[in-house]
Amino acid sequence: MPKFSIIIPCYNGFRFMKHVLESLENQTFQDFEVIVIEDASLDDSFEKLTEYQKASKLHMKLIQNPENLGAGRTRNVGLENASGKFITFIDADDFIENDTLEILNEIFEKENVDCVIFDYFLKTKNHTIKQNSLRKGKEGRISKSDALIYSTGSTWGKAYLRKNIKDHQIQFPNLQRNEDMPFNKLAISVCEAIYYCDKPLYYYIENEESLMHNPELMNEENAKNAFSIIENKLKDKYYHEVEAIFLQEYLYAITMTLIAKKVSSKIIRKQIEDSLAKYPKVYKNEAIEYVTRYQKMCLKAIQLKAVGLLKILSCLRNFIKKIR
User: Fold this and answer.
1) For strand 140-142 and strand 194-205, is the pairing parallel, antiparallel, or unpaired?
2) How confident is the model at residue 319, as a pLDDT?
3) How large is the greatest C-alpha to C-alpha distance in the chain, in angstroms?
């Protein structure tokens, strides 16, 4: 059994995979398998991956989906075929530091934990910026509550004991978007010992061609369905934590999606009213103090139902992104 299974979904993505494959070939810790699931691409990604697999020294499992399943269900295929003690995920257009697995292995062995959350770099066209995967906390063991509330919803930047995931049948839901957030919150909920590593080990590439930037997938129903999964599974045992997740992943995310879609102010105000009725005391949750400055301004405007101000804030953010 390899120590790590690294799961990489690929859809029309081989042309972006040079960096991730190089970073895996150059790992200072070599006891791992790579599971690439080719999601019925429309280009020659599978053929290129087959050629690469034959020439590479990597222990690679290459699987082709018979039809396009989407990122979440494709990662489930990876989970079904994983054999490592620990699992982690990388997107096809991203990559990791050469000593990532060595550092993770040392933490798992020394700290005897079943989850490690680690920081990352955001790479834009002009900058490489260190980002935190945990909004509150210092390096070391952290509580499950803090991990649930303050960790990002992204699939990457986390490594799990595979047995936990398998025994509790944690899977990615069948959503077009936001499928990673419920997976990670549910996966964290079944962990007993969690470690936060403040070293940036992952490089997230801001890629305009990725699904994250596809306007056709900009749908508030994805966020609603994703949160509903978390709410149904965790609310009874982790009400405070679910309320905190609601603040950012439901109230903020859905409202700002409607703003981006240029929905009428009347509909947006109605959505805000309906959202706040679900958790009327959400603004007293201390998690609001640990969101970004931009999110805090937006959440205040949401509380005031100031749709005009939200539109201005959204426009300013889009302008800053363009010049970044």
Assistant:
1) antiparallel
2) 73
3) 59
Going by the DSSP 8-state scheme, the letter that residue 134 receives in this structure is: B
Residue 101 and residue 297: Cα distance in Å, rounded? 38
Higher pLDDT, 51 or 321: 51
What is the rounded distance in angstroms from the CA atom of residue 270 to the CA atom of residue 185? 28
State how far the Cα of 303 lies from the Cα of 190, in Å rounded to an integer: 33
CA distance 168 to 187: 9
pTM score above 0.90: yes
Q: Specify the length of the chain in residues.
A: 324
The predicted-structure confidence for 114-132, as pLDDT tens digits, reads as follows 999 999 999 988 889 999 9
Over range 175-184, report the average pLDDT.
92
Give the C-alpha separation, 175 to 107, whole Å: 33
Give 145's Cβ-side CA count (13 Å radius). Answer: 8
DSSP string, 151-214: B-S-SSSEEEEHHHHHHTT----S-SSS-HHHHHHHHHHT-S-EEEEEEEEEEEE--TTSGGG-
- pLDDT tens digits for range 25-37: 999 999 999 999 9
Identify the pLDDT of residue 209.
58
Report the distance separating Cα 66 and Cα 131, nearest Å. 37
**What whole-number distance in Å separates Cα of residue 266 and Cα of residue 235?**
30
| CA gap 32, 159 in Å, rounded | 13
